[in-house]
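Workshop exercise sheet. Pairs work together: one partner reads the sequence aloud, the other fills in the structure field after running the prediction. Swap roles for the next sheet.
Pair: D.N. / O.F.
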Amino acid sequence: MRFKNKIALVTGTSSGIGKKIVDQLIKEGCIVIATTRKDAPKKIPKKLEYYKIDVTSQSEWNALSKYIKKKYKKLDILINNAGVRISGDINTTSLDLWNHIINTNLTSIFLGCKHCISLLKKSKNANIVNLASITSIRGVKNMLAYATSKSAMITFTSSLALDLAKNNIRVNAVAPGAVDTKMVWSLKKEINSMKKFNQRMKEAHPIGRIATPQEIANVVIFLAGNESSFITGITLPVDGGRSIR
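Structure field:
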């Protein structure tokens, strides 16, 4: 098993990509702390525990890092997956909405990394993987704050990778195209036509479809493992060819 007895922290795990990442890490022998804003499920695998946290709260991140230090002494993997997708252009995006999206998608990653660095330094081969988006790489209509929050992850990831290389901590990001999760379901509601939605997704992705959460999780797991030991500072598109169209 690739991650036998390694300690991983994954944010945003109640469904979609985050849940699949957690499931895969558990299968690979990892001990996982999964953050959520909801109550934990009743049935939990032996090597999994849930921790309720607001990822935009510095005090709650501080408490979580202290908890991990006391119980596990270190952290091998940090996966920043929590985020929100809310539409809006310059006219419809209020300052409150802008701050909410930036704080949830970007500041939360800064806080997570900041409060977990000391724990990651105690690992021999630590990894951070951030969940960006295809909108990190190219603009998109009516998604001003979301695209901005995700595009900032590219330079955050590469800059942090340079800072932490001396500590043998690799930092990478994954930039998914459309994925069959709640975020895309909200787009379906906006379009209000399954036929138009399916046509739009087919035209946007040269592969001709959207991704499954498992397909994105597979790449996250790859970047978190030893198979990618000579990769750091990149943002890897996993988008069915959307970024090259």
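Discussion prompt: The radius of gyration is 17 Å. What would you look at next?
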